[in-house]
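Section 5.1 Outputs to date
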Amino acid sequence: MSTIGNSTNIFWQESPIGKIERQKLLNQKGCVVWITGLSGSGKSTLACSLSRELYVRGKLPYILDGDNLRHGLNKDLEFKAEDRTENIRRVGEVAKLFADAGLICIASLISPYRKDRDACRAMLPDSNFVQVYMNMPLALCEKRDPKGLYKLARAGKIKGFTGIDDPYDLPLNCEIEINQKGGVCPMPSAMAGEVVTYLEDKGYLQD
């Protein structure tokens, strides 16, 4: 019997089918690929391209998109610092469950605060957390502005916008960093290929 947070008198129910059995069934190793970066840096583009590439290879991925999750699981949260932290905590817990189920969970969120990203990494007991940093210049992201949010932030219509009037903590321990090459952004397939190669080398794509 345990007390966790505000929950008392609770018990952990073990499953008769464990993570190893699920991974054997799926022929892959469950993990979390956490894509972080500024708005407009290409997180969703990479997530979708990576998901397609894994699917074509016969693997089972699932994307947790930050905006999509705010349509349901996190619709009660705003963009204040404490709500951002709770947003990331919830996504981290869900991603952990997907990884435990044996899926390759692709989490695509700005996740601006390093402490929150590190807390999600710490949730995985076997360190199956692959952080991908979309290191694109603010000027490029603002030029792209696919959702028109930078324009609104510059006009003062959005407060606390990451990169404008709210900080983005640069990752210190990312496994993969995506950069421009000679001032040119990599193609989605090239970015996905870099992540797939890493997953292969680390044994996540078992055959």
